[in-house]
Amino acid sequence: MADQNLMEKIISLTKRRGFVFPGSEIYGGLAGTYDYGPMGVILKENVERLWLSMFRDNRDDMFGVDAAILMNPKIWEASGHVAGFSDPLIECEKCKRRFRADHLESLGKCPECEGKLGDARQFNMMFKTHAGAAEDDSATVYLRPETAGGIFTNYKNVVDSVHPKLPFGIAQIGKAFRNEIAPRDFIFRLRELSQMEVEYFVKPDDWEKAFEEWRKMMHLFAGAVGIPENMVHELEVPDTDRAHYSKRTIDFEFDYPFGRKELWGLAYRTNFDLSAHANASNTELAYLDEETKEKFTPHVIEPSLGVDRTILAILSSAYREDELAGETRTYLALSPKIAPMKAMVSPLLRNKPELVEKAREVRAELKKVHPAIAWDDNGNIGKRYRRQDEIGTPFCITIDFDTLGEKPELKDTVTLRHRDTGEQERLTVSQVVERLQTALE
Ligand code: GAP
C-alpha cells in the first residue's frame, strides 16, 4: 500500500536533520538531483564502507577500480547504450509536456491538460557533453549511465597487473547519470545517482553457481545495513523486460512507502560486454587458463546496487513514531553500524564548567571506540534526546552532578539512554564503553 504521508514525513525529517537536501535549492532546485548533508554523507559512507568490506575487502577474489566518468564514446556504442539505452517518450500535442509512455498506462490523454498525446518514440537517457573546445559531433562524450563500463574496459589492465585467477571480480563505487524523463519519489529515481557494482568473471559453465552465491550475498548485505528481510522480494525479470545484455536478471524489490519497487539488480551478462569491447577496440580480452591452456572470453555475473535507493530503503524501514513520556516522538531505528552518530555525550547544564569538562573527558573515552560521537549541549536535555532520536543515534550519555560525586555512591557514573525504548540506566564510564563496543561489533 502506497503511503505518501510517510514519504512526506521522511523527506521532512531528512531535511530537518541534515540527511538529504534538494539539489540547487536556493535557485529553485534541479529535478532529479539531491545533495547529502552532514548526517547523510556519513550514512552514505557507512553504507559504502560496509559494501566495500563485504563485496571487496573481505575476499581474496575481488579487486577495485575507480574509473573516469568521462569515457571514450566508442565504449557506449560497443556496449549497446547509444543504440538501446532508452525509454519510450510521449509528448502532449497541446501543452508540449513530455512523459514516460509506460507511466501513462492506459490514460490515453495528457494527465496535465487532457490534451491529445502524440506517438511514443524512444528517448536515449545518456547525458551528452563535449570534450575540449570543439562543440561538434566529433567531440561528443557521454556521462556514464552505469559504472560497469569502466570495469569492463579495465578488465585487461587488472588481469595484466595483478594476474588474478578465475573466478575473480572487479568492484567499483561511483556516480552514474541518467537523463530520466520523469525523476520522482525523492532519491528513488534520480538523474545523478551512485552505484556499487561488481562484475564477476567466471568460466562459462560456472555462471549459475556464481549467480547463486551473489544472490545470497545481496540478502546478507540487506541484513547488514538493517533492511528487514521481509521487505525485500525477488522478482525474476521476464525475457521481454531484461536489459539487452542480460540472459537472466533478478530484481531485488523493496516495499517503499510509494509501493514495491526495484532496489537492486543481479544480472547474468554472459560474455556480451567483453566480446563487444574486444571486437570494437580490436583488443584481445580473452582469458588464458594456465593449467588447461584453454583461451576463452569469461562470462559475467553482475550484482548492481544503487546507493541512493539503499539509503531510501534504510530510512523508510527505520522510521518510527511512538508515545514516550506522554509525547509523540519520531526516531530512526538505524542499526548502530550504519547510524551516522554512534552516541551523543551531553553535560546536563552547559554553563557549569565542571560538568562540561567531565563530559568532554567521557566523550574522549568513547571516541577511542569510534570517532562518530556527537556533542550536544543545546536546549534542555529532553530536546537533545529528541534531536538524536531523529538522527538515529543509538545511545545518549548525560553527565550530571552525581557523576561529579554529589551522591558519593554514584561518583563517576553517567546516565545511558537507549534510543528505541527511551530507557535509562546508571552505569560507569567503562560499562558504557563496553556497551558501545558490543553494539558496534
Ligand atoms: N550495471 C547495471 C545497471 O546499471 P540498472 O538496473 O539499470 O543496472 C542498477 O541499475 C541499480 O542502480 C538499480 O537497481 C538501482 O538501485 C540503481 N538505479 C538505477 N537507476 C536509478 C535512478 N534513476 N535513480 C537512482 N538509482 C537508480
Percent of residues in β-strands:
25-35%
Mean pLDDT: 95
Report the principal-axis shape.
Answer: globular
Q: How many strands, which pairing sense, and closed or not: the largest β-sheet?
A: 7 strands, mixed
Rg:
26 Å
**CATH H-tier superfamily of the largest domain:** Bira Bifunctional Protein, Domain 2
CATH topology of the largest domain: BirA Bifunctional Protein, domain 2
Q: Give the number of DSSP strands.
A: 24
State the low-pLDDT regions, or none. none
Keywords: Aminoacyl-tRNA synthetase, ATP-binding, Ligase, Nucleotide-binding, Protein biosynthesis
Domain Aminoacyl-transfer RNA synthetases class-II family profile: 8-336
GO molecular function: ATP binding; glycine-tRNA ligase activity
GO biological process, one term: glycyl-tRNA aminoacylation
Verbal overview:
The protein has helices at residues 4-16, 38-57, 73-78, 81-84, 101-104, 148-152, 155-162, 207-224, 272-281, 307-318, 353-367, 381-391, 429-440; strands at 20-22, 34-36, 62-64, 70-71, 86-91, 98-100, 121-124, 128-130, 140-143, 168-177, 192-202, 232-236, 248-256, 259-270, 287-288, 295-296, 299-306, 319-324, 327-332, 343-347, 373-375, 395-399, 413-418, 424-428. The strands form seven sheets. A seven-stranded mixed beta sheet has the order 3-10-11-17-14-13-12. The chain has a five-stranded mixed beta sheet with strand order 21-20-22-23-24, sandwiched between helices. Strands 4-9-8 form a three-stranded antiparallel beta sheet. It is an alpha+beta fold and 441 residues long. It is 31% helix and 29% strand. It folds into two domains: 4-72 and 145-316, Bira Bifunctional Protein, Domain 2 (BirA Bifunctional Protein, domain 2), CATH 3.30.930; 341-440, 3-Layer(aba) Sandwich (Rossmann fold). The protein binds glycyl-adenosine-5'-phosphate. Glycyl-adenosine-5'-phosphate binds next to strand 11, strand 14, strand 17 and helix 10.
